[in-house]
Amino acid sequence: MEGFIGSQMHLEANRGNGHLNYKMIxxxxxxxxxxxxxxxxxxxxxxxxxxxxxxxxxxYTMLINVGVGTLLMxxxxxxRNNLSRRDGYCIVAFTWLFFxxxxxxxFYISGSIPNxxxxxxxxMSGFTTTGASILDNIESLxxxxxxxxxxxxxxxxxxxxxxxxxxxxxxxxxxQVLFSAEATGVNHDKIHPKISxxxxxxxxxxxxxxxxxxxxxxxGGMDIFDAICHSFSSTATGGFSTKQASVAHWNSPYIEYxxxxxxxxxxxxxxxxxxxxxxxxxxxxxxxETKYFLLSVGLVTIAIACALYxxxxxxVEHAFRASFFQVVTIHTSCGFCTEDYMLWPHFTxxxxxxxxxxxxxxxSTAGGVKSMRLYIILQNVKxxxxxxxxxxxxLPVKVNGMSVSSGTISTATTFVLFYIxxxxxxxxxxxxxxxxxxxxxxxSVSSIGNVGPGFGYYGPANSWNALPEAAKWVxxxxxxxxxxxxxxxxxxxxxxxxxxx
Length: 501
Description:
This protein has 501 residues and is mainly alpha-helical. The chain is 63% helix and 1% strand. It has helices spanning 3-8, 22-49, 55-75, 85-103, 105-110, 116-127, 143-167, 180-183, 195-219, 224-235, 253-266, 270-277, 282-286, 288-310, 316-331, 346-358, 371-389, 406-432, 437-448, 469-483, 487-490, 495-498; strands at residues 398-399, 402-403. The chain has a two-stranded antiparallel sheet with strand order 1-2. Strand 1 (398-399) and strand 2 form a beta hairpin. The chain is globular and about 65 Å long.
């Protein structure tokens, strides 16, 4: 959805100061609410096809969206046709908040989720592709609501791809804190000089992955509705299921492998797929971040599989499948579950916590700190050890054979440090709200990493419905800042952000 911004107007990339262009911000938000209204219409059609009366609630919400969108567009009349970086930050942040606020209305006004806090939490979890849920009887929801619930993840997943690859460079922040570490794995091979072409290419990759998974899941015995919803969740690395037991409901190794593979594919930089289509397959094979990510997934999978085989007594195939599925879905911040990993050997919990933090690749739908940042930091640490032995040696950090600037290294390090600080602050606040130490840690790390399941009671066996209401709002905020790379949201709490100069 953010890709729409770049294709509609000229942006002044270097105009970082001055007045916020409030009229243009309102105008764009109004247009985006129109787009969300169209998405409600799709969900209404699904509900109508299943002969469910709930279709009317999507129509009501669509009309509310159109009304508010029209008002915002009227307020934005005669706006200056340019945007600054600060305008861009406002649009991205308020888009997620507006989409969530209006997106929860079908749940709330239909009575499917009668509590405002729960409805907001569920919708924010959807749009941020977190996948944590407060629902204790998912199957009781009508098809239209289940479709919208999964659709929010697909929309959010596509939105974040546009955000990290397509939109931020237009705002002129390619070297800034919010984007520099992301851009390292992207900007060496320009996908396409025009943002509209780039957005269409990314959408095409996203659609092909989703459609392909639908076909494979149907071949495995899923009906078309469940296959579409789970494909939405897999390619968005979200984790919402149409069943309370999640993927375990089907008890199918084939379905588990299909979801695992497509979740893994969706966690690799989408620009690499675009380059493959342009006849550059070696970039995918030789990409430093991808190799680090796959190595990380492989090593953790083997370690946990060995634990399940030797300690828990699983057979070889079951041990590998259970480990592979759970490591991939958590490492990619998807969060599907087939087993209660809280019953696994204790050290595996620490490995899964690492995967929650690490996340997937830049330019993908995955959450976490991203493999590129970890790769850069590890390369820098390695160089520091070598520098102790060879003080005069010139030891650059290299990604894909190209040297990384000291500014990018500093940015990556700062981001990871601040990410950890935010996780600890969230952990502390959740403990103040009465949560157990271990459970509060799991919810904080899972929320900011957009993963879904946590630890202890709030692990894969239960929903998050028992959380205090205040904790649900805290978790929702952590989901938002994690999805938008932390700085983009927290920057707006700075007084300097709103100063005219």
